Structures are given as C-alpha cells and as structure tokens.
Amino acid sequence: MIIAPKISHDIDCVTIAYYDWLFSIFAKPFNDESDQHYVSKKNEHFQTLLYATKRCPTEGLEIIKDLIAINDRLSELSEEINSKKTFLVFKLEFLKFRGKLNDLKNLFYENRAQIDPLTKLNLRDSLNYLDIETKLQPQSQPSNFYVLFIDLDDFKSINDTYGHDAGDKVLKDVARILNDTLRDTDRLLRYGGEEFLAILEAHNVAEAKDIAQRILKNIEESVAIEDRKVTATIGISSKSNKESIYESITRADNAMYFGKKNGKNTFIYL
Predict the structure, then answer these.
(1) Chain-centre distance for alpha carbon 96
(2) CB 231 within 8 A of CB 264
(3) Is 220 tagged catalytic?
(4) For residue 97, which of 24, 28, 14, 25 has the smallest C-alpha distance?
(5) For the purposes of burial, counting CB atoms within 10 Å of the CB of 199, is it exposed (0-12), middle (13-18) or buried (19 or more)?
(6) Is 245 helix (H, G, I), strand (E, B) or coil?
(7) Cα(first)–Cα(last) distance of the chain, in Å?
(8) d(Cα 147, Cα 209) in Å, to the nearest integer?
C-alpha cells in the first residue's frame, strides 16, 4: 500500500539529510569532524524511501531509477569536489536530484484521491494507476498471477444491527488483517463497499488457495463485533495471458458469488 503523506514525509527526510550531507562536505576544510555521520543518515533515509516506493507505478519506478543513478554519481563526485569543474558538475547533479524528488512527490499527490481514507488502501480506480495490466502480463511464460475477490459476509446486517461506526471499524480491521496476511509483492485494493481485491503471484493454484484460506482464518479469528464473528467469502481466478485483468476480476467475482450460495466463509476457484 502506498500512502501519499507517508511518501511525502520520506521525501522531506531525504531532502533534509542530503542538504546536511552537502553542508558537511563544504565544511570539511573548517571542521575536523568526520562527515560519515551525515553520509550514513542520507543513505538511511534514501533506503527508507526506496523501500516505501518499491510498489509504485511505472512512472514512479523510472523516477526512482534516475534517483539511484544520480545518488551514485553524487557519491563519486563528493570524493573529488575540490576543483571548480567538479563542484559545478556536483551542483548540477544535486539540482537534478532535488527535481526528481519533487517529481516523485507530485506523482503520489496526483493519485492521492485514489486512496481510501477509511482503510488507507488503494481504491478500485487505482488499477490503472498501479499499472497492473502491464506488470502482471508475462510475455514468454504461463501466467502465475491470481485474483482474489474478497467479500465480507452479511455486512449489511452488521451496519443495520450495530451501526455504521461499527461497520467502519470492521472494514478497517479487515484491511489490517489483509495487509498483515498478504506479502509485500501482492496488490491489495478496496474494490467497493465491503469488497476487497488482492492480486498476487503464486507458483500454482494450491498456493493461491492456501493464501485465501489463511485470509479466511485470520478474519474469522481476529475480527468481531461484540460476540459476533466476521467472516468473508473469496472467489479466486487465475489470470490468463489472453485476458485483461478486468476479465480475471469478473471471473473471481462470479466465483465469490458461487461461494456465497454455498454456505459463505469459504473460497471458490473458477
């Protein structure tokens, strides 16, 4: 999950750390203190940013790639910054780096509206933003990507019986459980209402079913309103190379409805 305010904070931390590092370089002739502390801090914040953005869309990945290249170049130049020529090159590279950080921040704020304010998950419209259609389309091997359509059982009666605040808490709790159960490489969205969508890579359908089973178990064991346990039904589909992600979602949705008709709190693979 990618949240714009978190990314913005990470970018600001990187910016401050890099300015501190820059000032420590120019203070070297007047200060006996080692600049290694500032090098470590800027590397630490930069790695944090890279980790936070590792699941960003293609456009963001291109910016990250440029940032890594410029960062390496800055580190090289910092070792020989005494000459005027090197200083000018260093300055230009630093300005490029700052500009790329701004581009990255703007990219995430442009898509902030695609984050659900309640669960903090990406919304349905972010399917295009996450570039799933491109990333989940192997060209030379069979697809090993699976869609999990997750729908909470009898959610309307939860709202009717306990109120919408209780319903909102259930949705937040389920989102947390899903985040904890799924892996960093999986995509998770709030698809609408009490529906969630997970898109994951698995070696085979057995692995996808195992993940679905763990989701069901964790929801049933961890989410409740008073003495009422919350359960879910999951439809699973494998993504064929010949179909779009939306067609895979439709098949998973159909599988989920089949599960609803056959007892709920289960998963169905079609």
Answers:
(1) 26
(2) yes
(3) no
(4) 14
(5) buried
(6) helix
(7) 27
(8) 11
Whole-angstrom Cα distance, residue 170 to residue 168? 5
Catalytic residue among 62, 194, 201, 243: 194
d(CA 117, CA 121): 8
Name the nearest CA neighbour of 182 among 49, 50, 1: 1
What pLDDT was estimated at residue 122?
Answer: 84
Q: How far apart are CA 212 and CA 149, in angstroms?
A: 10
Find all residues with CB under 8 Å of 145, minimum gap 6, and list them.
136, 138, 199, 200, 201, 202, 238, 239, 248
CA angle 70, 6, 212 (to 5 degrees): 105
- Exposed e or buried b for every residue in 86-117, given b needs 16+ CB within 10 A? eeebbeebbebbeebbeebbebbeebeebbbe
Residue 44 has pLDDT above 70, yes or no: yes
Average pLDDT over residues 220-224: 96
Q: How far apart are alpha carbons 224 and 162 in whole angstroms? A: 11
Quote the CA–CA distance of 119 and 35 in Å, as a whole number. 42
64 CB neighbour count, 10 Å cutoff: 17
The pTM for the full model equals: 0.62
Tokens 């200083």 correspond to 87
